[in-house]
Specification:
By secondary structure, the chain is α+β, with helices and mostly antiparallel strands. 43% of the residues lie in helices and 13% in strands. The protein has 2 domains: 124 residues, Alpha-Beta Plaits (2-Layer Sandwich), CATH 3.30.70.1230; 103 residues, no CATH class. Strands 1-4-8-5 form a 4-stranded mixed sheet. Strands 2-3 form a two-stranded antiparallel sheet.
Length: 247
Amino acid sequence: MAKFAMDCLQAMEQVTERLVVELGPDTNTLKLRVGLHSGTVVAGVLRGDKSRLQLFGDTMNTARSMEASGIPNRVQVSQETADLLISQGKGMWLSQRKDPVIAKGKGELVTFFVDRKKDTNPDHSNGSSVGDLSGSAVEVTTFHRITDWTTEVLAGILKEMIVSRRTSGIPRAPKAHLAALERDVTLRNEARSTTVIDEVQEIIELPEYRHKRDRGPGDDVVLDPIVVEELRDFVRTIARRYNDNRE
């Protein structure tokens, strides 16, 4: 169950990473907490319109407390579950939480966090709580995620522009268009008997607009890494100026 819980956390991170691109950076705030407790339970099927198997007992209540008092993206387990993991030679997965957990009807409980990866950094504690995270670290992480998402969105717009330019080179007859435009002009200067077309000094021919569905696929468009990095630097510069103005 400990392995399954950690796999669930990993899968949750992968899902939110995909959703960030589709729904925006705020989607990254979606987190998952996991709590585990070991003991005896009573199981039964609840009848009714929606029959379901339900578990009852003190073990379930304690497991709920492990989840409710846990930390996002962490697996919190009780002393009983930790003892079982130790008995199976998995004590290296455990790190005791620094602050005790208050469980309803139980008082203060000693709990542990589970992590299959050994922490090789002595300055980092797997048992750290939310309070141990500095606000600046969280802000920096959020800043990078937002800028990366914005960069990806703008890069997609650049690719659309490239596709549009590839398929917009259709020849036209500028003189014919101008003649038709001149005939349709209703704004005239009665005194001089001239039209607004007579005042035109220079004509810039624009490519003919084509709808996205007529432009062909743009999956083969690959932006130069230098262009993407310059775009990211531009987004970061604008974002930092926004934060400065907000303060």
